[in-house]
């Protein structure tokens, strides 16, 4: 029976193995776990040559693959590369050698029967030529023997997992995995508060096949990864939905600097660093120096670089490194001046505080906060001791007493993930407030019974102080209501509005707060249409305060 690795059909190869199993004794000198190795060839799968094979392993259940070599390939080199994609595994290479007569090499003529008889009586030889346990990428390089059958056995003792196996018997046609340089280390050449700069030596594959090679960088806070396969498994286990067969395959002109294109079964998708959870993936073409941005201060990060073959999706790992970003610098403190209003915008995602400092020139002072957007927490200390702390809404005053030259520190922080903003003023002049006197409520009321097809009646509260009120309207769609109400800047004045949105301005007040209410009927509206109404209150200083926006829909039929 003449054996050929590529040209024999599967049934014929299985028949060959069955013949081996039933015609030759199993060895008795092997270890207990391999005492039936020869019979186990019968239960093995054929390992493909020249391509990467994904092997799924169940816990404590060994899985076996075999391969045979062409008859004319005696003493030819071959390689086997195994890449664990998660937990450590155990794997071995066993070789079975039988006499040439049994494998179809019997002498011609009268001696044929005698040679076969001798081979059947002689014991076959099964030996383990390689054994490994761990989670590193391991490559075995060997020389094939004449008339030999090889078996690979894989075992996971921790949990279900998967690995990749690559068998190459034709080393002249190029290697599947990109070659690493002689020094495969990653060097850290710069560290900042939120950045780390890395460099590494070029892979020889980049110099030879530049258009087919890509460098990919993985960043995480847990540990280094020994293979791209292991990193992809970690990404999937963190809850990110990824294709079943994952490979980094990128084209520089299709990518943003912090985006990765995933190629799986010819389907492409882009994964941002922000959506990849634990592991950030960055690919940068064939550049071998990169500055990783948007890191957190005083945090240790692990960096792994892989050189990826874009044609085969195979990769080789550089030796990973790690670095700790610098500690966050002390926040900048802005000086507050008497009577001057400043507006502060707070980043809700970074949750950083903004600091303001004021040195008192009077014994009594007043802090004023006008919330413009979002939610803001205010924290005030005097000479290091807390004097006020609360979440503010609308317009809020803090009147404080102390000594001359007391140091007040105001810290502001957004309590929402979205950005917030607030206006701040400090002044010793209580009798000349910069902001207008406010009514009990800043809500606008509409009267449903007074609605018509082309008019709406609204009302709002005033104060005991004569002030100017301006009314604006804006036509909106149903799907714009939420966004308009959420994005409204309560500190912005009518100067930001289009002139066509202005309805009227009026002055009013009442000494009796119970009667300090005014109404207005806005006419000339379209039937069955949504309108957003705003009222602006102007005080003596001219600084406006915006009432809460009100959405009203005119009647469709009258």
From TrEMBL:
Purpose: Secretory protein that plays a role in various cellular processes. Acts as a chemorepellent acting on gonadotropin-releasing hormone (GnRH) expressing neurons regulating their migration to the hypothalamus. Also promotes neuron migration, growth and survival as well as neurite outgrowth and is involved in the development of the olfactory system. May also act through the regulation of growth factors activity and downstream signaling. Also regulates extracellular matrix assembly and cell adhesiveness.
Signal peptide range: 1-26
Protein name: Protein NDNF
BP GO terms, sorted: nervous system development
Keyword set, alphabetical order: Glycoprotein, Neurogenesis, Repeat, Secreted, Signal
Superkingdom, natural source: Eukaryota
A GO CC annotation given for this chain: extracellular region
Domain Fibronectin type-III: 231-328
């Amino acid at each position: 029976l003449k054996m050929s690795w590529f040209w024999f059909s599967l049934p014929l190869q299985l028949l060959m193995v069955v013949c081996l199993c039933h015609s030759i004794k199993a060895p008795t000198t092997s270890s207990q776990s391999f005492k039936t190795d020869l019979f186990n060839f019968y239960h093995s799968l054929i390992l493909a040559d020249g391509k990467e094979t994904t092997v799924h392993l169940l816990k404590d259940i060994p899985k076996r693959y075999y391969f045979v070599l062409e008859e004319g390939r005696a003493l030819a080199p071959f390689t086997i590369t195994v890449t664990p994609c998660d937990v450590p595994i155990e794997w071995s290479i066993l070789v079975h050698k039988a006499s040439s007569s049994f494998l179809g090499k019997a002498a011609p003529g009268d001696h044929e029967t005698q040679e076969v008889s001798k081979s059947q009586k002689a014991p076959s030889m099964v030996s383990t030529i390689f054994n490994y346990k761990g989670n590193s990428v391991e490559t075995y390089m060997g020389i094939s023997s004449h008339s030999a059958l090889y078996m690979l056995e894989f075992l996971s003792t921790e949990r279900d997992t998967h690995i990749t196996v690559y068998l190459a018997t034709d080393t002249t046609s190029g290697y599947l995995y990109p070659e690493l340089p002689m020094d495969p280390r990653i060097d850290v050449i710069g560290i900042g508060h939120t950045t780390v700069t890395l460099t590494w030596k070029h892979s020889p594959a980049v110099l030879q096949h530049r258009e087919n090679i890509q460098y990919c960088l993985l960043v995480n806070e847990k540990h280094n990864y020994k293979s791209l396969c292991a990193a992809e498994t970690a990404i999937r286990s963190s809850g990110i939905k990824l294709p079943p067969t994952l490979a980094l395959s990128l084209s520089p002109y299709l990518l943003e600097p912090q985006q990765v294109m995933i190629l799986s079964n010819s389907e492409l998708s882009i994964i941002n660093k922000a959506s990849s959870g634990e592991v950030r993936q960055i690919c940068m073409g064939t550049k071998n120096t990169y500055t990783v941005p948007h890191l957190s201060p005083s945090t240790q990060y692990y960096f792994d670089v892989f050189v990826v073959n874009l044609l085969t999706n195979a990769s080789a790992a550089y030796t990973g490194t790690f670095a700790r970003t610098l500690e966050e610098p002390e926040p900048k403190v802005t000086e507050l001046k008497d009577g001057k209003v400043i507006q502060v915008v707070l980043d809700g995602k970074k949750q950083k505080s903004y600091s303001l400092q004021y040195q008192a020139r009077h014994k009594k002072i007043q802090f004023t906060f006008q919330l413009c957007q979002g939610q803001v927490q205010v924290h005030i200390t005097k000479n290091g001791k807390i004097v006020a702390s609360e979440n503010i809404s609308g317009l809020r005053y803090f009147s404080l007493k102390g000594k001359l030259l007391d140091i007040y520190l105001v810290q502001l922080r957004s309590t929402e993930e979205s950005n917030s903003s607030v206006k701040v003023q400090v002044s010793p002049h209580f009798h000349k407030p910069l902001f207008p006197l406010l009514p009990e409520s800043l809500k606008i009321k509409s009267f449903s019974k007074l609605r018509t097809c082309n008019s709406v009646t609204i009302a709002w509260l005033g104060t005991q102080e004569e002030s100017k009120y301006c009314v604006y309207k804006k036509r909106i769609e149903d799907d714009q209501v939420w966004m308009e109400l959420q994005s409204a800047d309560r500190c912005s004045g009518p100067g930001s509005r289009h002139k066509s949105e202005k309805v009227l301005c009026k002055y009013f007040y009442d000494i009796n707060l119970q009667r300090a209410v005014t109404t207005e009927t806005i006419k000339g509206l379209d039937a069955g249409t949504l309108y957003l109404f705003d009222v602006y209150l102007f005080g003596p200083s001219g600084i406006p305060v915006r009432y809460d926006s009100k959405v009203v829909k005119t009647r469709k039929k009258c």
